Every structure is written in C-alpha cells, then in structure tokens.
Amino acid sequence: MGQTEDEPTVGQLVANASRDLSNLVRSEIELAKAELKSTAVAAGTGAGLFGGAVFLALLAVILLSIAAAYGLTALGLHPALSFLIIAVFYLLIAVALILIGRRQLGKAKGPQRAIETSKESVEALKAIGKGD
Description:
The chain is mainly alpha-helical.
C-alpha cells in the first residue's frame, strides 16, 4: 500500500492532533477567563454587601448587649455585675464554638478520593510511558 501525496503522514497527523489539542485547551482557558470576568463584578458587589450586613449585625449585637446589661441594672443589679454577666455569657458561647470547631476540624481529612485517583492516574501514565 503506497502513500499518495494527498494523504498526510503519521508525523503530520500527530502534529495536527497536538496543535488542535493545544488550540482546544487555549480556547477553553479563554472561555473560562471570559466567564470569570463577567461574574467578578457581581461577586465583588455581593461580597461587599454581605460584608456591610455582617458589620451592621455586629453593631446590633453590641448595642443589644449594652441594652441587656442596662436591663439587668434596671432589675436591681450593680452595673458592673450586669456587664460582667453579659461578658461571661459571650465567653461561654465562644468556648462552645471553639469546641465545636475543633471537633469539626478533626473530621476534615482532605480530598482523599481525589488524591488517590490522581496517584492512580500518574502511575498509569508512567506505565504507558515505559511501554508496559
């Protein structure tokens, strides 16, 4: 079976496939960049608004804490004791959150399946490269 001038050689086919694959990857990267740029402004605005809401909520917690301390004072407690009770209340909440957070961090193992499949892929590629 002779090769005619119109038929590409194996080397040309490999070069064309490599070029096409590079173009495909480059195009996918450009598409991802375009999508990220179009949503970055919306994400930034949303994050800014969320940050503002968190700040205002924190101010509300502070003001409500002061109001609660003055409420305890109005019930007859000494002002220092009222503020101390509120502070201890928040410290108890903080300790509970720390304990829960530490327990949750202990459960975090990382992407075990992704790591395992990545190792398997590397081993498979090494085997192909060796010609096994």
